[in-house]
Amino acid sequence: MDSLNETDNQLLLIRQYGEKHAQMKDSGMSASMIEHFGEIAVAVIASQVCFS
């Protein structure tokens, strides 16, 4: 999480997310489909328990 405090890393992550959204859009997914996919992804990731 410390890396998220760095502006350069934040911009890089935003750019990468934008590129992925563009790829999904080019594949025929609508904005609402992309949004729904993101909601599902967040729910799945948040439900994972990490024991390290």
From TrEMBL:
MF GO annotations: heme binding; oxygen binding
Superkingdom per UniProt: Eukaryota
Classification via InterPro entries: Globin/Proto
Name of the protein: Uncharacterized protein
